[in-house]
Predict the structure.
Amino acid sequence: MLPDTHIHTAFSGDCSTPAAIQIERCISMGMQEVCITDHHDYDTGMKEEIFLLDFPAYLSRLHSLREEYKGRIRISIGVELGLQSHIRDYLDTLTHSLDVDYIIGSCHFIDRMDPYYPSFFEGRSERSAYERYFEVALRRIQDLDCFDSFGHLDYVVRYGPTTNQNYSYQNYQDYIDPILRALIEKGKALECNTAGFKYGLGHPNPTEDILRRYRQLGGEYVTLGSDAHTPEHIGYVFEKARSILICCGFRHLTVYHQRNPCFIPL
Ligand SMILES: [Zn+2]
Ligand SMILES: [Zn+2]
């Protein structure tokens, strides 16, 4: 079973599943390796900052689980870090001192709003909301260097008024190609996040066409994650994801150990 490298636990503000339960599920599915990646979103503009990770408690718990499960599964320690250009110094300082294996860079907050909430789409067309998301994501990728893989590139599409009915790579190519080029230029991975299937989009985030385009443009590093917040979503449709990645031209999956890329044949 391919390793799941995007999993949340009760250390995330939006998850109540204990880490040990998630890890047990990975073992029962036959995974030899897993990476836990809880949320850390700093200065979001939310009334209550619920996505701040308690790093000392998190790292200490995961280090002890890593020991406890030694020989049964390799546990990597990661974080899903909220990228925002205005906190670049904070992110640089944090990540330079952080002893983790893997950092997913993600964009949950755009202009102090999360597309998860309908207010993000109020007063503008769905297209202009999606365009804004991609513009901001590009700027952050250009401005920041504190991550290994870019998570769920078209996250915004999960929550638009018509989700992906009017969305395709071709329709947004002018916005997406610069993002893919910037990731490749910086040696960053692109994540294939299978939660798109869970959300009923019928595609991963990002779509097959975008994964294929990243590969065509010379992208080599692709990571795989379910974004599971509950045990039943761990490794979600990973066999389908394996076929998709092979069809898109990838021969290896990338996992990170001590922030260094390692390859697993698909
Ligand atoms: Zn996320
Ligand atoms: Zn996530």
